[in-house]
Amino acid sequence: MLALVGRRLLTVIPSGLIVTALLFFSVNGLIGSPAELMLGTDATLEAIAELNRQHGFDRPLITQYLEWMGKALTGDFGRSFTTHQTVAEAILPRLPVTLEIGIAAIVLATFAATTFSSVTSARVVVRPMATGLAIVGITLPNFIIGIGLIYLFSVELGWLPSIGWAPWRTGIINHLQHVLLPILTLSAYFYGVFTLVYQAEYDAVRRRLFVRVAKAKGLSERQVSFRHVLPNSILPVITYVGLSLGQLMGGAVVTESLFSIPGIGGLLVDSIVARDYPVMMAIGMIVVITVVVMNTAADIVYTIVNPQIRLD
Amino acid sequence: MNADIAVQEKLLEVDGLSATFRSNSVRALRDVSFRIDAGEVVALVGESGSGKSTTGLAIMGLLERGEASLSGSIRLVRKSGERAELVGLAENRMRSVRGNDVAMIFQEPMSSLDPIYSVGDQIAEAIAAHQDLPRARVEDEALRLLTIMAIPDPAKCFVSYPHQLSGGMRQRVMIAMALSCRPRLLVADEPTTALDVTIQAQIIDQLGILQRDAGMAVLFVTHDLGLAADLADRVLVMYAGQIVEAGPADQVFSRPTMPYTAGLMRSRPRIGAGRAAGGQIQPIPGGVPDLARLPTGCTFHPRCAHAVTGRCDVTLPALEPADGGRAVRCLRWREITP
Ligand SMILES: Nc1ncnc2c1ncn2[C@@H]1O[C@H](COP(=O)(O)OP(=O)(O)OP(=O)(O)O)[C@@H](O)[C@H]1O
Ligand code: SF4
Ligand SMILES: [Mg+2]
Fold it and tell me: Which pLDDT tens digit goes with each residue over A170-224?
């Protein structure tokens, strides 16, 4: 199994190179040259050419890409065009914020999707409610869900603060009160997708013979569902977690803007508005690399939970 | 009938059992009645689709309410001596019957075990479902059961995962699991059909030994009439959801009274009864009827060589007592020698 995990990990390098190169070339292709982007449409050709020379944007793209990667690997992403602080300085304090709500949202979505839909109760209609909620999560845009939650929990009930951010050091309770709504907002869509994926697999697994055997032992409905059906139905959800991280960034942008949270998503929006090429590129790179790494991680988890592969 | 049999203790009594699957309106069981005494081996034979597995599932309470509607009665004498009516029994009480008073093993050993738990864990789970033992005792017991099943390296099997075992091993594990709470009745639904012949023989032998040692009754579902004749005290012949002949195995197999039973026996390949001996295989003409739209009268009449128009296609025969302690469902059993 270790060899298998090792092989999977090695694939991160080529796929990382491919996606980062794709991002680099397509961003440069789309915006023309960074100098044009910075100086705006009314700049003179001379000014643009001058700036391009200064920053080395006149060299072949492949050279620029290799240079960018080379520096990035040492932690040097250049300097922001607008604030002139280093890109690392701009990003680093904001990274934990986005990571926290992103990871919490995915964990919550996975947990809720698998448990709600596994509840088997003759009396309470948990399953249709889980499905209904999933459809709401998928169809309603993030900001509507966010506004709805703010309206309900902050305006009507007054239980939670509406927007703004409180770091951990301002107190755990205070912090949690501020992150709860953003996490719920961000997880809604993923809860929906995971639920539909999970339910399809759950229903298929329920028809398998070993489930009938488990019941024949005298286990309760709940034991059959949570011990035997759930663990056998979770693999497609894990795959989806890996695939969802691109969308997670999209969701984070909206959610962080809505709740005025100082994360990477907000920074990305700011950098696009300010045409701040180095910041934009660095965040884009972080996102695509995270997606590649997480896909691989999902693959590895897949391997670990499946004894058929684990033991070979 | 000797006195010994007369005093035998009734274990299971199925009376007027009917089952209809809701999805396709298939009437899988119609007015099925039989009894199984303590320690007795009863074979349930019949073509594919005749309702054998459905009978077993009904006894185990494994036909979900939304899946099939069930009527009639299944009375079981539990280990405690209590007589329980299993049809319509509340789920939490049925749960204490399953695996405890009645256990079942299934036709496909390859898919009977959960792929993500080790064999030992799955047997332990069955033990812990009904016995309140410390974990170490549960594991000892699981190991003991694997040893009884003549598994070569029980300790290794204990930590194995299902995909690492052959079909024969998996079925042994299933039997070990089924026996874990010493049920008084085992429903064995074609336990060896999916296995090759040598393994089949070994497992059947072991099952026979365990059955006698434990004094456990077995409802043995099988296609194999030879196996039924070897193992069973009594035999139930099922056709299109009904019992059409029932009686002591030697009686039924030596002189079948119902034309369907006779047809089953002629359609079975036998060694040493080749063409030269005149014992040709004669399949029953036609096929099993559509259980959602059954023929009128005797369900078997479209395929029966003895059918009489105006009679067999009109009147539904009842299961009547006949010679040699058997019961037969045929309008003409007195007149014909099938
Ligand atoms: N879950 C189900 N839903 C609908 N119809 C079913 C279901 N299970 C079984 N049936 C139908 O009920 C009838 C009896 O099936 P059953 O499995 O009891 O037959 P069997 O005698 O065990 O056959 P085999 O020898 O093939 O195992 C068949 O016509 C079958 O198609
Ligand atoms: S009742 Fe008629 S059709 Fe049915 S088995 Fe007897 S002879 Fe054949
Ligand atoms: Mg069957």
Answer: 878 888 888 888 999 999 999 999 999 999 999 999 999 999 999 999 999 999 9
DSSP labels for B120-142?
A: HHHHHHHHHHH----HHHHHHHH
Distances (CA, A) of A128 to A112, B193, B215: 14, 40, 48
pTM of the model: 0.84
Q: Are strands B326-328 and B242-248 parallel, antiparallel or unpaired?
A: antiparallel
Query: Chain B residues with CB-CB distance to A under 8 A?
Result: 60, 62, 91-92, 95-100, 103-104, 106, 108, 111-116, 118, 125-126, 129-130, 161, 163-164, 174, 177, 181
Distance CA A72, CA B248 (A): 85
Check CB contact under 8 Å for A218 and B113: no
Domains assigned to chain A: 2-88 (no CATH), 95-262 (1.10.3720.10)
Say how far apart CA A295 and CA A11 lie, in whole Å: 11
**Residue B74, amino acid:** I
What torsion, rounded to 10 degrees, do the Cα atoms A116, A119, A125, A128 define? 50
Per-residue DSSP letter, B325: G
Task: Note the pLDDT tens digit of each residue in B137-159.
Answer: 899 999 999 998 888 899 999 99
Angle between helix A95-116 and A126-139 (nearest 10): 140
ipTM over 0.85: yes
Residue pair A204/A257 in contact (Cβ under 8 Å)? The answer is no
B60 contact residues in A (CB cutoff 8 A): 216
